[in-house]
Each structure stands twice: as C-alpha cells, then as structure tokens.
Amino acid sequence: MSAVPLRICFVTGEILGAHKNGGIGTATTHLALFLARAGHSVTIVYTGAPWVDGAHPWMRRCEAAGVAVTHLDARDGEIYPLWLRETCVMLDYLRGLEQDVMLFQDWEGPAFATIVAKRTGIAFARTVLAVIAHGPTAWLLDANRRLARDPRTLAHLHMERVAFEQADAVLCPSRHMLDWLRGSGQPLPDRAEAVPLYLWSDPEDALPERRGEALEAVDRLAFFGRLETRKGVDLFLDAILSDALADRDFEVAFVGKPASHTPDTIRDAVARRRPSLLPRLFFEADLDTDAAQAFLRDGRWLAVIPSLVDNAPCVISECLRRAIPFVSTLTGGIPELVHEADVARVLVAPNAPSLADRLDAILGGRFAPARPAYGERDVGARWLAWFETVGRPATAAPEPAAAAPDPTPAEHRPGQGGDRLAVVVTHFERAALVGQTLESLADQTRPGFDVVLVDDGSRSPAAMAALAALERRRWPFRLTVLRQPNRYLGAARNAGVRATDADRIVFMDDDNLAFPNLVERLDDAMSRTGADIVTCQMSIFRDPVGEPEPAALLDAERWGFIGGALELGLSLNCFGDATGLYRRGVFDRIGFFHERRGVGHEDWHLHARAALAGLTSVSIPEPLYWYRRVPTGMLLSTDSYANNRVIWDAYAQALPPGLARFVDLSVRNTLVDAMG
Questions:
Q1: Mind listing the domains of the chain with CATH numbers?
Q2: Where in the numbering of this chain does the Glycosyltransferase subfamily 4-like N-terminal domain appear (predicted)?
C-alpha cells in the first residue's frame, strides 16, 4: 500500500468493458486496477465512442477496486476545426478535476489542449501531465507504408509533436519506441523513459496458467492480431500459401478484428493461390481478450504474430503470460518482451520466406511456449517507483519566462518600449460597433494598456460624429484616434503599429468583443512561454448589430487553432486570427501586414511568414473574444483565389526558385476545386 495515495487519472479512448480487446484498453485497465489495489486513488476518463456496459465483468472489477470510470463523449460540442474538438472537450472537462498525475495516450494528440493549457498558465499548475507512446501517427504511417495526405493527419502530427515535447513526462512501453522518437527528431522532456507496460490485475483469473506445456504435434496455425498490413497479415498469407508449405497439412484461423483486410479478402487470396485450404480456414473476429486466449489454448493452436513493426504488442504479452506457444518477428519492441534464451527459437526475420521456413520446421513437431523477459512483480515495482518519483511533488506550471530579446536595433525602437502594451483597433464606418469593442476593452482584468483606434477612411457624418464622441469619452485607458484615407485593413493595422511605442501589441477588429480576461491571458501566456505571437480561440455570434448574451457562451460555436503547424498552414489558417498578442520585434523581423487592396488573409499571411522565418507562436485553447460572423464579412466579398494566392506565394518564396511550383502540388486539390 502507498503511504500517501496519489490521485491518478487515465485519459483513454479504449477500455475493457467498452472494447473487447486492444492493447491500449488492455494496458490501461489492468494498470488502473493495479494502482488502485496499491492504494492510489484512480480515475479513468474514457473518451471512446462505444458505450460502457456497467454490468460488464471488467466494470465490476473496477468498481470493486475503487476505480472511478467516467464516459466523456469527446465528440460532442460545437468546436472547430474537428481535429480540435476532442482535445478541447477533454480540456474543458479535465480542468474541473483535481489530480496529481494525468496519463494520456498519444495517437491523434488528445493531450494537446491540456498540455498547452498548462504551458500557457490557464490550468493544471500542480498536475503532472504524461503521455504514453503507444503508437504515434508518424510511426504508424511509416509502419503501414502510407503518406500524410490530408489536413487532419497533418494537424494530428503537429498536436502529437507538441504533446510529446511539452509534456512533463513521456513513457514508452519499449526501448524501441523511445529510440524511434529520439531518432525521428522528436523533442522530448527530460523525463522520457522506457517502462514495460503490461501488468495483469487478475492473478486468480479463471484461465489457468499452462507454464511449460508444449504443443506435441503442431497442425494448427492461428494469425493472432488485427487483420492489417502492419500486423503482418500479408506476410502471413504469403508464407502459408508459399511453395515451401505446399505439401504440408494444417488448419488456419484468423483471430482478430478486420482492418485493412477482411475475411472475404483473405478467402479471395486463398482461393486464388491454394483453394484446397479453404475448407480448413476459420475466422474469429469477435472474441474479447480472454476468449481469444482461451480459443488458442483450448484449441491447441500455434499463435503466429508476424508484425512488420510493433511497439510492445499486447498479444505477445498475453501469450507469454498464458504460456501459449507462438512465433513472431524480430522487429520493433517484440524482442524486448521475450527471454533472451527463447528469442532465436520463436522470433524470425519479418519476411515471408523466413516465416515459411520456420513454420515448415515447426509443423508436425513439438513446440514449447516462450518465457517472458521480465517478471510481473518487477514491472509493478517500476511503475510504483515512477509514480512516487514523478507524482510527488507535482510539477508546477512554468514560471513566466524572461522577455525574449527584441530583434529591433536599439536606434530603431520608438519610445521607451519595455513592458508597455497597446491594443490596436481598426475601424471603417461602424462606429456603433466599435463603441461596443471599446467598452469590452474597458472591462479588462489587466489594466495599464493604451488603445490606438485607426479609422480607415470613414466618411459618413454619422460615423464621424460617433468617432468624435468616443474620442471625448473618458476611458480607463489612453485612447488615441488615428484618422487616415481608406487604404484597407492591412494598412490600417500597420498604421496602428507605427503609432505606438508599446513592446507588445494586441489587434482587435471593430466588430468583435473582448472577453474581460483577453489581455491578461494573452500577456501572461507570452511571458510564460516566451512565444513571439500568442493567439486564442474565438466564440462565434451572428448578430449584425447587437451584443451576445453572456449565457450564450456555454453553447456557442468555437473556432480554434493549433499554432505553428507549418505544413498545414499552407492550405489552412491553423495559426490564429489577427486578434492576438504580438511582440514588436515580429514586424521588424518579417515586415508588416500586406496592404493589397481588396485581398484578404493578411493575418494568415503574417502568421505564415512568421512561422517560415522561425518565429514561435502558441494558441491558447480557450475562447477569449466574441467573433461576429455576418454575410457581409470581408472574406465572403473578396476573391478566394486572390486571397489564397498570397499565402501560396509566401511559401513559394521560402523555397529555392526551382522548387517553387512544389507549392502548387502541395495545396489540397479540394481547396482549389472549390474556387472553381
């Protein structure tokens, strides 16, 4: 029992009781039960789609051990783009929990928003955030010989990269995965280590141990795992249908869920190459983890697990624990699981000829199960020691970072600079709306900033009179009204930058409304992270003249950004709206907003150029202002191709001249098609 229990929360998309099998669900459920029985307070926040059956034996085990299970439907909510929805729904829920340690799976970056929230200082100051590297997207793409061809995949690659880099700790179930992450150039925290994952919480399980019992005459081969390329289903088919085994008699079973292959596609392959095997072909696609092991054991099958690459596959650990004889491949983290004395006997090179030769040697003869490389008690002790070390004391949120040096030469810096902050508000013929904007800035929780209101050529008597009234009004900030001929939005923002000597600049449009904590959150996040640009999410409202009701915020549509995902930024603005906080040095380093009349995306264009120049940005994963979306918005009234062309040109200019047209090939075809 732990002397001082820790509060430990697992955030997972798989759990036994909702999923019949799968490595993540198996590992998470058993580890949670183990830690609860060791005296810790354990919570599982399950975020998957399949419903949890409260009467399922695994749920009863959790209840008996004191493991609290919550099903959070992370798909529910008006948060866009869709790849941000789940991670933001998780953040919104998790920030209401008090935990010492939270552990997330890695695939598709569910920890992203929570980790960025801690980094920017909005939550989790005393909670350790850890990521377990089961199988990141980049690793899976390579393993399955696929390419990142869609924006969702590019977004997930970035979200995973940020989660790994900025987590308090990263855990890898194998040295293979830790080496792969480091070899791929993935930045990792100081506490990144390999710890065997599988702990079994049911030593008195109904399935008896069969340690040391061999198959006396192997005549049954069972592919054990998901029916997908990475798990070696093609390799297995090539081996059993090869000439090397043409004269051998055996039965074949496929024990696993369909994936890249189905029972029908497998039957078709067998029918083409060895139709005589069809009557001896069996499929077990719907067994849970215990039933699958019982099927292999009771049917006296030789499990074949021919993965092309794998981390620390659950099926290997299950076979080792149940002493189920198996053959697998010398790849990934598999050799780390098997006792060194058995490696040469049960593991082969990951190719069909090697597997066929090994099966040919085994069929008809005696074959004993392999032994595990480590004992379960040792693994349990390592996990308990890890939690004691990492979870006590909890890692505090990062302190505000020292301000990054301003790259502007001293002789070119206007005024005193330093810590001064200004808000630049752009306006054209909407004095009633800009009055609402200024009132929202008057309610800020962080005082002591200036406001520069740039009127971009308003001419109507009503607008001129309203502006004069706003200028005369007493505000809790120093207001400067700058009037200029109409030169369009980018030029208006640039004029505002030049009119202030502040070191940090926030931009607001005249039809948007700041939340009371907008300036404080942005300023604090920049100080903590040292980022050059800090943006945030927006809440959408559609009233063309009025203000949103405060209660509408709970159900409002939200639009967010993932920050500096340079590859995705070619086709989509993943960086942020203009509303955000910018260091003055950004403009001296890369220039100002573009001033092309009638062309939009000046904010996206600036963000992309900043990212291409190596400047850093972060986007706070919560809304900090109301964004007014109306049919007369600028992007809806300007040419889509011209708007996007400025982005593509910025990327092309960053490439050698002979490669500039690669940008044309890289832009999503669906985007170009939509423009006609």
A1: 7-196 (3.40.50.2000), 220-362 (3.40.50.2000), 416-636 (3.90.550.10)
A2: 22-196
